[in-house]
């Protein structure tokens, strides 16, 4: 529950701080991905690009998390280490947000830029997920604003706590 509250606080701060930046937010979710040092696709010769546990790459896979009345849906399209897709947060009695992301999958960790609309405002933030066969786990941690989006202050300290179960894609 604490993690859900942390996410909601970050989302609220983002919505409040982005009122003047509708046109300066990154419309293209492919434009920014902060890669952890030494993990770019070109530098990572050890990445297993044929399978990630029970998921055959490339491919499409979907996950969903339902906690009480909150639902999150994510669709991943995976090609080698490049991952793009859709992410939708439907939070009870809160503003929903829905958008697209693009990022890199390195050692089963997806680091991506998520561009979304909430309350009519375009925003962008970094997201991280751990892919483990039939589950996907969202990471949470302290975030800072950088280049008109929120990014993890220290990606190595991200805690993966919100578990999503694999489902058939819509």
Give the gist of this structure.
By secondary structure, the protein is mainly beta. It has one helix and twelve strands, in the order αββββββββββββ.
Would you write up a description of this structure?
By secondary structure, the chain is mostly beta strands. It has one domain. It is 9% helix and 51% strand. The chain contains one helix and twelve strands, in the order αββββββββββββ. The strands form three sheets. It has an eight-stranded antiparallel β-barrel with strand order 3-4-5-6-7-8-9-12. A two-stranded antiparallel ribbon has the order 1-2. Strands 10-11 form a two-stranded antiparallel sheet. β3 and β4 form a beta hairpin. The longest helix is centred in the N-terminal third of the chain and has 16 residues. The N terminus is likely disordered.
Structural class by secondary-structure content: mainly beta
Count the strands?
Answer: 12
Helix content: under 10%
The total of helices stands at: 1
Helix and strand run: HEEEEEEEEEEEE
Query: What is the average per-residue confidence, as pLDDT, rounded to a whole number?
Result: 75
Gyration radius (Cα, Å) is 15 Å
How many domains in all? 1
Shape: globular
The fraction of residues in strands falls at: over 45%
Main β-sheet, in a few words?
A: 8 strands, antiparallel, barrel
Termini separation comes to: 27 Å
Instruction: Return residue spans where pLDDT drops below 50 for at least 5 consecutive residues.
Output: 1-53
Strand order of the largest sheet: 3-4-5-6-7-8-9-12
Signal peptide: 1-15
Protein name: Copper resistance protein NlpE
Keywords: Signal
Region (Disordered): 20-51
């Amino acid at each position: 529950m604490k993690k859900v509250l942390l996410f909601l606080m970050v989302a609220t701060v983002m919505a409040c701080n982005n009122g003047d930046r509708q046109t300066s937010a990154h419309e293209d979710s492919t434009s920014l991905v902060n890669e952890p040092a030494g993990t770019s696709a070109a530098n990572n010769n050890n990445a297993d690009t044929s399978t990630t546990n029970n998921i055959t790459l490339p491919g499409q896979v979907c996950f969903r998390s339902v906690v009480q009345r909150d639902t999150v849906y994510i669709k991943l399209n995976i090609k080698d280490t490049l991952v793009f897709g859709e992410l939708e947060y439907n939070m009870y009695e809160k503003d929903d947000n829905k958008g697209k992301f693009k990022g890199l999958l390195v050692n089963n960790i997806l680091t991506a830029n998520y561009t979304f609309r909430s309350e009519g405002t375009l925003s962008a933030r970094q997201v991280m997920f751990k892919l483990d066969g039939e589950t996907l786990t969202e990471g949470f941690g302290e975030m800072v604003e950088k280049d008109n989006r929120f990014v993890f202050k220290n990606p190595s300290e991200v805690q993966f706590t919100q578990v999503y179960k694999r489902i058939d894609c819509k």
